[in-house]
Amino acid sequence: MNGLEAVPLIKLGVLARLVGHRPKENAIREIHNLVAERPLESITAADVENLLSQYELPRHRAQEGLKEIYRQALEFRVSDLHLSDAEIGELRRLRYILGLEDADAKAFEVGLLRVHYRKELKKALDDGHLSDDEKSKLEAMAVNFGLPDGVRAEVYKEEVLNVIQQAFSAACADKRLTAEEERRLAAMSENLGVNITHDADTRRKVDRFRLLAKIENGQLPTVAADINLQRGETCHAQFACSLYEMRTVTKAVAYHGPSGRIRIMKGLSWRYGYVNVNRVTTEQLKLLDPGTLYITNKRLLFNGRTKNFALPLKRLLHFTLYSDAIQIEKDSGRDQFFKGEGDTELLGAILEACLRQSR
Question: How far is CA 321 from the centre of its chain?
Fold first, then answer.
């Protein structure tokens, strides 16, 4: 009854019973059983007070136990996410019976009811959208529970911002932010009634992800190059760098075996031993020339101090990005490495888009 199940009292040993010992914990248990077994209208505040007196349990020490009884009764009544007028009246009477102050009980109720409100709100936000029906139900639930506007707004803001942040993180997980993804985020924010704001660092990342998405979609930036281009040729990127190639380097390593000396006569001796010279060959990057690499819609162009060359995109087989370089694999000849301090990720995105459009 009233959402509580009767609990057994703490049993006493023979000696404890002989001396008349009464565990104070049993006072709360007897009050619990009283609420569990009888209708609230048949219980009075005096019944509770008498039990506390019998066990000589001061009210301030009984408060937590009395609140737990009220919590269980409240939890039972809000399990269907609605409090009827009859249930609200029963709770009011239970507070009086247990001697709970209205202010204390109200704070206790808010703590419990906000948990239920948050749970239903999260469930409704599972698809990132709140329908008019869901909004109405949540509003009615908050009003029925008597949640203060401040509490309701706080819970709503926390959960909605969490959903928006998750959606934003998912959209940017690939370091791209497409126009479609931005429209979807804007529609979600409008539906949920929040505005997306970012700090300066996040705004820079968003601008970068937006640019990378445009490049991936074929919308390439245009760069004014200070070199002669062919008709219909457009420069999309330039990279201040140094040109390197892998070259074979051979070193000689001498090995001296056991040796000794034999004296033949005074002032004359004969040394013996063994000397072996091994050659060790390694591949190393060799600097060829500093200059600038240009990426166009037709070619890779390198303008160096001592040498220039052009590589049509159709001859480029593969490229590899490093944090400070880009490696170019051609259909013939040595691989070339262009090392610099520019944005190699952006450079790679532009080169990939150029290759895709040229084939």
Answer: 27
